[in-house]
């Protein structure tokens, strides 16, 4: 009954310019830059937002409250977002809307097969695209419409959040062991690919994706790691203006 009432109130309160009014969005995302983008999109759409930066934190949040929508990054520091999608799909009562996000569009099929209701490819920066994806995943709001226009549709997250992400990645890279079986490089490669796509940084995205490809192929060459580390350091250098 409480969930039905929540959906009813959300539908009654929503307006064309704020179609997500009354909804709570839990974002499971380790990138501050990507999370800031979704925060701005939620703010302009009328939704409340909460954030978890790993699977463990997300599970703690879900023990306390039930969000209307959960947006799960597929690459997290303590595991794959696919794990959480499967858990939530199998649990009852199921959350109203489960969305996946990733800097790798090729992972959409795996997310949908795990039970996600939709997929947001990074960068997630279009107001209309974000609103449409959320509304499409919510049967209770199936008839709702968004009036987001193309002009002014794109949001621009705080570049300081991007710098924080790059500093975090640099620290992780500096601490990576030489052991080719260590999974830390897998994590940092996908993390950097995602934030590079969100920041439209093609050279960094290409280097991070090359590192990820080598890791998937079981290669342990140091050249991609050194290239990625160098690009990250360039971007956080004081003269770079990040």
Report on the structure:
Helix content is 51%, strand content 12%. With 242 residues, it is an alpha/beta fold. The protein folds into 2 domains: 2-141, 3-Layer(aba) Sandwich (Rossmann fold), CATH 3.40.50.2300; 159-240. A 5-stranded parallel beta sheet has the order 2-1-3-6-7, with helices on both faces. A two-stranded antiparallel sheet has the order 4-5. Strand 6 (97-102), helix 5 and strand 7 (118-121) form a beta-alpha-beta unit. Helix 2 (32-45) packs antiparallel against helix 7 (159-175) and helix 7 (159-175) runs antiparallel to helix 8. The model is unreliable at 1-5 (pLDDT under 50).
How do the strands and helices of this protein lay out in sequence?
Blueprint: H1 2-13, E1 24-28, H2 32-45, E2 48-52, H3 55-64, E3 69-73, E4 75-76, E5 79-80, H4 81-90, E6 97-102, H5 108-114, E7 118-121, H6 127-136, H7 159-175, H8 184-198, H9 202-216, H10 223-236
Parallel strand pairs: 1-2, 1-3, 3-6, 6-7
Antiparallel strand pairs: 4-5
């Amino acid at each position: 009954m409480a969930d039905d009432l929540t959906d009813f109130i959300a539908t009654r309160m929503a307006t064309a310019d704020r179609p997500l009014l009354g909804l709570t969005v839990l974002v499971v995302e380790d990138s501050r830059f990507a999370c800031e983008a979704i925060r701005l999109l939620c703010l302009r759409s009328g939704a409340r937002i909460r954030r978890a930066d790993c699977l463990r934190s997300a599970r703690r949040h879900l023990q306390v409250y039930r969000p209307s929508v959960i947006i799960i990054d597929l690459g997290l520091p303590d595991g794959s977002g696919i794990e959480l999608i499967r858990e939530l799909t199998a649990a009852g009562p199921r959350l109203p809307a489960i969305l996946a996000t990733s800097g790798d569009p090729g992972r959409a099929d795996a997310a949908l097969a795990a039970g996600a209701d939709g997929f947001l490819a990074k960068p997630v920066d279009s107001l209309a695209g974000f609103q449409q994806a959320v509304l499409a995943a919510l049967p209770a709001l199936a008839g709702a419409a968004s009036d987001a226009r193309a002009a002014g549709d794109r949001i621009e997250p705080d570049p300081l959040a991007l710098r924080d992400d790059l500093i975090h990645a640099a620290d992780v890279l500096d601490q990576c062991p030489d052991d080719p079986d260590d999974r830390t490089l897998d994590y940092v490669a996908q993390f950097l690919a995602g934030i590079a796509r969100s920041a439209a940084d093609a050279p960094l995205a290409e280097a991070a994706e090359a590192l990820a490809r080598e890791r998937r192929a079981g290669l342990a060459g140091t050249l991609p790691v050194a290239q990625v580390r160098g690009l990250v350091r360039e971007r956080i250098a004081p003269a770079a203006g990040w």
